[in-house]
Design a protein that fits this description.
Elements lengths: L31 H14 L4 E4 L14 H27 L5 E5 L12 H20 L8 E3 L7 H4 L1
Parallel strand pairs: 1-2, 2-3
Helix pairs in contact: 1-2, 2-3
Length: 159
């Protein structure tokens, strides 16, 4: 998360502790799942105020050893699923006054790091989408927030 909720530790964001939150397991690479999630949110709250694109998968391998199939899987999750999620929620958000889209980026998209070329490429592509998206929807949406958790270690990093 980009910002901690007052009074909660960063490791605990449970619906019981955040009134009004709808939690649902969603596989963002399965087109029906985000569609179902948006429908559930609209049924429960009659609106969607924010979309947080936080799903992602790292890929640490030298370019010469990179399996194109692995790159496709990461690209599908880190980039294509983000665009699909935006497309799913845009019709609902267009009918509302307040709405935001938050994209979780990576500092690796801004640097050259050995072994991260494939992953960095997916995140750099996502950065470009974040530039094009507000230009296309500038009259309708505020600029999307972008978070780059530079220097932060997640449980996945230490595994």
């Amino acid at each position: 998360m980009c910002q901690r909720h007052a009074g909660l530790s960063a490791s605990r964001y449970w619906p019981a502790e955040l009134p009004g939150v709808l939690a649902a397991t969603t596989l963002v690479t399965v087109p029906e799942d985000p569609e179902r999630l948006v429908a559930r949110v609209v049924d429960a709250h009659e609106r969607v105020d924010v979309l947080v694109n936080n799903a992602g998968q790292g890929l640490r391998v030298a370019i010469e050893d990179l399996d194109p199939a692995d790159l496709r899987v990461v690209f599908e999750l880190d980039m294509v699923a983000v665009v699909a999620g935006m497309q799913t929620v845009l019709p609902v958000m267009r009918s509302q006054a307040a709405r935001s889209i938050v994209k979780m980026g990576s500092a690796t998209s801004l640097r050259v790091l050995p072994g991260l070329g494939g992953y960095s490429a997916t995140k750099a592509t996502l950065n470009r989408v974040s530039v094009v998206y507000p230009a296309v929807t500038a009259s309708e949406f505020p600029r999307p927030a972008a978070c780059r958790p530079h220097g932060r270690r997640s449980p996945q990093h230490s595994a």
